[in-house]
């Protein structure tokens, strides 16, 4: 058994942050969750909620008191801009006695991630998940309303990861020795096409779902109609049309770090089946 520790989780209301919180609690650790609006946040019983903003690091000294681990995200503030405050955050963390830091990769180079890599005063671990299984929730409305998924590049491959497994890897790196200086590419246990994912969801909800393949132009029109910024549209076009090898290769990191196999998309679909049935 690992000794009980107290961990500060930033970005605690996000898709990954919530999983880090849940995994730490499951492992018997104490959790302090940082959010910019504490009155609007909801967490499991036992989580200590504190208010703060990563863009104003000097105000976070009380939140760092008594914690041994710190989970960081790379953006902050109301505009979710890349954080430039990494060196000061890490200085405060070291002064407070923080020994281990994890940082969630932001999809590209960021000042905060660079600061974690360069800091030899803490054991820093970079978490680099590929496509989240939770991204499939974007299909829920179309499945509920019309029984269909409309996507381009339907033969594209993805080793998408259960967001709970990202939380599990983070929890281990934050509470156990041996992960400092590591960069973990976190994937699921299998490589899937869009068609594979749709069939898996159909099996989970017990209904037929039609996959409609969009042309590139139709996809661009759909994304823009949804209000996506042009930089996001460009990212999706590149990621879906030319998925890098790292995004379609099983890494084995989940089992290596946690000692158990990564969760499958079938498991994820079963857990979220109600969303595709139109139930909250």
UniProtKB/TrEMBL annotation:
InterPro entries: Ergot_Alk_Oxidoreductase (IPR051604), NAD(P)-bd_dom (IPR016040), NAD(P)-bd_dom_sf (IPR036291)
Classification of source organism: Bacteria, Bacillati, Actinomycetota, Actinomycetes, Kitasatosporales
NAD(P)-binding domain boundaries: 11-106
Name the record gives this protein: Hydroxylase
Name of one Pfam family that matches: NAD_binding_10
């Amino acid at each position: 058994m690992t000794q009980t520790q107290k961990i500060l989780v930033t970005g605690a209301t996000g898709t990954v942050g919530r999983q880090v919180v849940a995994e730490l609690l499951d492992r018997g650790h104490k959790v302090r969750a940082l959010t910019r609006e504490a009155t609007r946040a909801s967490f499991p019983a036992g989580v200590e909620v504190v208010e703060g903003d990563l863009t104003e690091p000097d105000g976070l000294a009380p939140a760092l008191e008594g914690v041994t681990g710190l989970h960081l995200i790379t953006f902050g503030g109301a505009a979710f801009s890349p954080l430039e405050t990494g060196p000061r955050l890490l200085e405060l963390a070291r002064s407070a006695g923080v020994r281990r830091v994890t940082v969630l990769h932001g999809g590209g180079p960021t000042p905060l991630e660079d600061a974690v890599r360069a800091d030899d005063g803490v054991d820093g671990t970079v978490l680099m998940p590929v496509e989240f299984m939770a991204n499939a929730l974007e299909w829920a409305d179309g499945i509920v309303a019309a029984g269909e998924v409309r996507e381009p590049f339907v033969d594209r491959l993805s080793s998408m990861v259960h967001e709970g497994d990202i939380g599990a890897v983070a929890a281990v790196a934050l509470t156990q020795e041996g992960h400092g200086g590591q960069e973990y590419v976190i994937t699921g246990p299998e490589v899937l096409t869009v068609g594979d994912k749709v069939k898996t969801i159909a099996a989970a909800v017990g209904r037929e779902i039609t996959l409609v393949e969009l042309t590139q132009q139709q996809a661009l029109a759909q994304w823009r109609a949804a209000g996506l910024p042009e930089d996001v549209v460009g990212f999706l076009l590149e990621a879906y049309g030319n998925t890098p090898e790292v995004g379609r290769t099983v890494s084995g990191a989940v089992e290596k770090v946690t000692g158990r196999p990564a969760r499958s998309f079938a498991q994820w679909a079963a857990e979220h089946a109600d969303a595709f049935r139109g139930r909250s």
